Amino acid sequence: MEHFTYTNAILNRVKAKYALTSEYQLAKKLSISCGSLSSMRKGKRMLDWSTAFLCADLLEESDQNVVLGLLIDKSKKPRIINALRESWPELKD
To answer: Does domain 6-91 have CATH number 2.60.40?
Structure first.
């Protein structure tokens, strides 16, 4: 089951923008394996930086937004997450 993470949000946006109808098509678009994509979707693996920046380019999104969003996914420390959310108000619950 997919759970909410920045990784899943950005992957969903790429999939929607390019009208991709399967995870296979998304994996091909991002030049990653289906297994890697599945692991990312399940939270077993985080989006790597090169794929994250490819997503940013495909979505015409700023690198800053991608870095902040992905740092929150990658961090397990509440203090780091809170500091990032304070600098990026759109992430506050």
So the answer is: no
CB 68 within 8 A of CB 84: yes
Q: To 10 degrees, what angle do helices 23-30 and 6-17 make?
A: 90
Query: What percent of the chain lies above the pLDDT cut of 90?
Result: 53
**Residue 71 has what DSSP assignment?**
H
- Tell whether pTM > 0.85: no
**Token duo for residue 81:** 């997450």
Contacts of 89 (CB under 8 A, 6+ apart): none
Domain ranges of the chain: 6-91
Helix segments in the chain, DSSP class H:
6-17, 23-30, 34-41, 49-59, 63-74, 78-87
